[in-house]
Specification:
CATH class: Alpha Beta
Distance between the termini: 25 Å
Largest sheet: 6 strands, mixed
Strand content: 5-15%
Radius of gyration: 20 Å
Number of strands: 9
Strand order of the largest sheet: 1-2-3-5-7-9
CATH architecture: Alpha-Beta Complex
Number of domains: 1
Length: 370
């Protein structure tokens, strides 16, 4: 791994306490995660967890455009094109999910500063963090339907925590959420102005940190909700999701996926916010739409370990015979923006095709040991 893909810093605080700070540093790829970055972060977290002086971990991105926009999608594409099969893709997804699960179970607080784009792999880091701080530049979305994948990295476990119907709508339409949207939905804990990020890091070093994670989280929450921070974001636009939630829930309140999709596509509106969602659904993979529906059906019944096993199985199957390869080709590689999906509509996707994605991809799921 190039030495600068991750910037590692130990912030020295009061009373000989410390904070481990990881900065994703690949601005040319919007800080997208490579396999080496994933593995290095996992090793660092293992090391810091047993260091008694390090009381918490901070994750941030080096570029104002993005915290992290996803995974190494070109490497995944090359793997799916390989005559040997998608061996690298399988290793990447397994390693990424192991890191995310480790973060969910980490014994010390992990704080993510979500400045800029947060999608795909970046969303996984966000979900797994103990405390999430957005900025006025935060743009969160799960747009995987557009490349023939599905919103993974643990999102299946998040759906049930969102207002009813919202997760389904977000996934089908690739809707982007702002800082105040994410706070309203409970996806983030607080927001600060991006100009205050460096000041926040300095302020954190002036605190005495403790062995009790909850005590440390309380200190952080009090700090970022101080008026010196909140005063600089008070004029940001209110949450669009909050304003439109009743309508979103009306559109998604159906017992069949095809009816939900029809409601969204036939929604009589000239609001650009809705029109962008219509366009994303119309161009997205019908197979992905069905996998999204399946995620919603399973969200309430799976614990976190089961979620990652379920998602890994879907991810591996979709790299073997799904629309993912074609979606990357059309949007990222050839950029003709004309993916040729296996099925041309949600209604035309047969149940047996979706079942192939849920059939066991191996004799034993690689995440059995997490």
């Amino acid at each position: 791994m190039p030495d600068d893909e991750l910037l590692i810093e130990i912030l020295e605080c009061e009373n000989d306490t410390c904070i481990g700070h990881i900065t994703l540093n690949s601005p040319e790829t919007l800080n997208s995660l490579t396999l080496n970055m994933v593995n290095e972060m996992s090793l660092l977290l293992d090391k810091w967890e047993v260091d008694p002086n390090i009381k918490m971990v901070i994750l941030s991105g080096s570029d104002e455009k993005a915290f992290c926009a996803g995974g190494d999608i070109r490497a995944l594409y090359e793997s799916m094109c390989s005559s040997k099969g998608p061996i690298f893709a399988e290793k990447f997804f397994e390693s990424e999910y192991r890191l995310d699960y480790k973060m969910h179970r980490y014994s010390k607080p992990i704080i993510s500063i979500l400045d800029g784009i947060v999608m795909g792999g970046g969303a996984g880091l966000m979900f797994a963090s103990s405390y999430k701080i957005a900025t006025e530049r935060t743009r969160f979305a799960m747009p995987e339907i557009g490349v023939g994948l599905f919103p993974d990295v643990g999102f299946t476990s998040i759906i049930k925590m969102l207002p009813k119907g919202l997760g389904l709508y977000m996934m089908l339409t690739s809707t982007q959420l702002t800082a105040f949207d994410t706070i309203f939905c409970g996806l983030t804990n607080a927001s600060i102005n991006s100009k205050d990020i460096e000041r926040l890091l300095v302020d954190l070093t002036k605190e005495v940190w403790h062995d009790d994670p909850e005590e440390n989280l309380s200190i952080i929450d009090s700090l970022v909700n101080n008026h010196s921070y909140t005063n600089k974001i008070k004029d940001l636009p209110v949450s669009k999701i909050m304003k439109e939630l009743d309508n979103i829930q009306s559109l998604t309140n159906e017992q069949e996926l095809s009816k939900v999709c029809a409601n969204i596509l036939l929604n009589p509106t000239d609001d650009d916010w809705y029109l962008r969602g219509k366009d994303s659904l119309e161009k997205g993979s019908p197979t992905s739409a069905h996998l999204i529906w399946l995620q919603c059906l399973n969200s309430s019944y799976l614990n976190l370990k089961e979620v990652f096993k379920f998602e890994l199985n879907l991810a591996i199957q979709i790299t073997r015979f799904g629309d993912f390869k074609e979606g990357i080709r059309a949007l990222i590689i050839d950029k003709d923006n004309y993916p040729r999906w296996k099925y041309d509509s949600v209604k035309s996707v047969p149940p047996e095709w979706i079942k192939k994605h849920t059939d066991p991809a191996w004799e034993r799921n690689p995440l059995e040991d997490i």
